[in-house]
Amino acid sequence: MALAEKARIMDEAAIQRTLRRMAHEIIEEEPELSDVVLVGIRRRGVPLAERLAGFVEEFTGVRVATGRLDITLYRDDLTLKSEAPEVEGSELPPDLTGRRIILVDDVLYTGRTIRAALDALVDQGRPRRIQLAVLVDRGHRELPIRADYVGKNVPTSRREVIECRLREIDGRDEVVIMEETS
Question: 48 pLDDT exceeds 80?
Fold first, then answer.
């Protein structure tokens, strides 16, 4: 399956503005930031969680805790992805019990990645609450999962793919729609 770029829906400035807005929404929803942990889902959720934490600190003076969550072994499509999956490991605060967790990811699609992340988190403790923040929600859910903080809703067809590129991983910030070509 070959993919071709169909449209650029966010550039660096748009991503920056969106993350700043999402940080304000988190601050409004979470008056006590000391219990909050922004947990990025590896790969692109990690730099997004770090950026959100930076904006929360810029706006409030409070540095919220962050973490990295590797869901590789929790995926329901593990055997379809690779015969030898690459596990990077999670880096989380020592005790998540009683904490308010905000999972952070780049694109919300079927909900299966988030289901795996929930399983992985619960194995680390019993958070008081788990919420979800995503840069892009593209629809087509297969599980009853929704995001609490959404950067941009982008209706897509199943022939389209949303690619989020971040400077920490890809060398540039942009979100593009890719489409299958014949």
Answer: yes
